[in-house]
Amino acid sequence: MATNPQSEGEDRVVYPIKRTFRSSIRLNLNHLLMKEIAGYLINPKISTNQENLRIADVGTGTASWALETGVKYPNATIDGFDISDEQFSPLYSISNVQLVVHNCLEPFPPEFLG
Question: For 61-113, what is each residue's pLDDT tens digit?
């Protein structure tokens, strides 16, 4: 579920790149291209078979990486952060993926630290 911890009336940060359908397509194609070039979602040198694995996707955009990673690693918790929820997919419902509106230039709330 996407969450927005900003309080009502709080000014939103202005984002210089448009958030359009075409922008979402660009982000998703970029994800697919980078995965194809790299050959993996997570670098194989990073251990993913540990208890309570928690992964942050900072600047998640459309959350394509976070969602695909959540499916591949069902025992991990994936937190996707972006300055806006305008490009979050309304169709996602993966229980181990949480999308959060957060300005990553600001300190993270305590529940995401550790």
Answer: 999 999 999 999 999 999 999 998 988 887 778 999 999 999 999 999 999 98
Rounded to the nearest angstrom, the gap between the alpha carbon of residue 47 and the centroid of all alpha carbons in its chain is: 20
Measure the CA dihedral 111/43/73/71, to 10°: 100
Name residue 100's beta-bridge partners.
Answer: 3, 81
Quickly list H helices, the chain: 21-38, 64-72
* Residues 76, 48: Cα–Cα separation, whole Å: 8
State CA 14 to chain mean position distance.
Answer: 19
- Whole-model pTM? 0.79
- Alpha-carbon distance of 100 to 98, in angstroms, equals 6
